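Help needed: design a sequence for this.
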C-alpha cells in the first residue's frame, strides 16, 4: 500500500545518512573505501547516534499522504519529466547530428581522394626529377 517511489527515496536518504556518518568517523579521503570500513566496525552500538536521525526520518516518511511526502514525489516526477524531455530533445537532434556527421564523412572522403591524387602527382614529379635527365640523355643518344 505504501508508494514504491517514496520507499526508495527513504532508503536513499538512509543510505546517505549512513555514508555521512561513516565519513565523519573514518574521514573523507579518496583512498578510504567506506564499504570496507563497515566490516571493521567491531562494537555493537558504534552507529547508535545515527538511530535518532533515522527514527526522525522514519516519522517523516510514515504518512505517505503528508504534504512533505507528496512534495517529494512531485519533485521526483519533475526530475524524471526533465530527464525524459532531455532524452526526447536528444532524439530529435539526432537527425541533425547524423546529417552533420554524414557531411563530415563526405568531406573527409573528398579530401582523402584529393590527397591521393596529389600524392600520385608528387610521386610522378619525384620520378621525373630523379630519372628525367637520364631518360632525356638516353632519348637523345637513341635519336642519334
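Sure. Designed sequence:
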Amino acid at each position: 500500500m505504501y508508494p514504491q517511489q517514496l520507499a526508495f527515496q527513504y532508503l536513499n536518504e538512509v543510505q546517505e545518512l549512513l555514508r555521512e556518518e561513516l565519513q565523519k568517523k573514518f574521514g573523507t579521503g579518496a583512498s578510504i573505501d567506506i564499504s570496507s570500513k563497515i566490516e571493521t566496525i567491531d562494537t555493537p552500538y558504534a552507529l547508535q547516534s545515527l538511530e535518532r536521525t533515522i527514527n526522525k526520518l522514519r516519522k517523516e516518511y510514515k504518512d505517505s499522504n503528508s504534504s512533505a511526502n507528496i512534495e517529494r514525489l512531485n519533485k521526483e516526477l519533475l526530475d524524471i519529466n526533465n530527464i525524459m524531455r532531455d532524452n526526447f530533445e536528444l532524439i530529435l537532434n539526432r537527425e541533425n547530428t547524423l546529417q552533420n556527421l554524414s557531411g563530415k564523412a563526405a568531406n573527409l572522403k573528398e579530401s582523402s581522394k584529393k590527397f591521393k591524387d596529389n600524392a600520385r602527382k608528387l610521386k610522378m614529379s619525384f620520378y621525373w626529377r630523379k630519372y628525367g635527365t637520364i631518360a632525356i640523355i638516353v632519348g637523345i643518344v637513341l635519336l642519334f
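The mean pLDDT is 86.
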